[in-house]
Design brief:
alpha+beta; six-stranded mixed β-sheet; about 130 residues; globular
């Protein structure tokens, strides 16, 4: 495996989802990778290790009833922020916005933390004033 930049790694990661090509995930994930999904709230599911992370992402890529759409990607050294929309149904409200905070080391993903806007109501601090 040749060394890849953070930009190259994140571009390939996003293409796995947009092109629906789970094979793009091969050799893209580090052995010690830690991933936290957006659900269940409040902390999300924690997935550890290369095999488990690849299996989790592969299932998402292969799910033809959903669609992941990157909106913006910001790269800063070994870190990347991916702002995205995730469509999970055919209705006009069947989507959610979120962000992944990624870390790349030696050309592979070693950390992926997912956060999303909630579908239900969350009381704001100003509601208690």
């Amino acid at each position: 495996m040749s060394f890849r930049t953070t930009t190259e790694v994140i571009d390939r990661f996003n293409r796995a989802f947009t092109d629906r090509d789970p094979d793009l995930l091969n050799d893209l994930v580090g052995e010690d990778c830690v991933m936290e999904s957006v659900q269940p709230a409040p902390t999300g599911e924690r997935v550890e290790g290369r095999e488990a992370c690849v299996a989790w992402w592969r299932a998402l890529v292969e799910d033809r009833t959903t669609q992941f759409e990157p909106q913006e990607v910001v790269i800063a050294a070994d870190r990347a922020t991916i702002r995205w929309h995730y469509r999970y149904g055919t209705g006009p409200a069947d989507w959610v916005s979120g962000v992944n905070l990624m870390r790349v080391r030696d050309g592979v993903i070693v950390e992926a933390l997912g956060y999303s806007k909630t579908a239900g109501e969350v009381p704001l601090a100003t509601d208690h004033a």
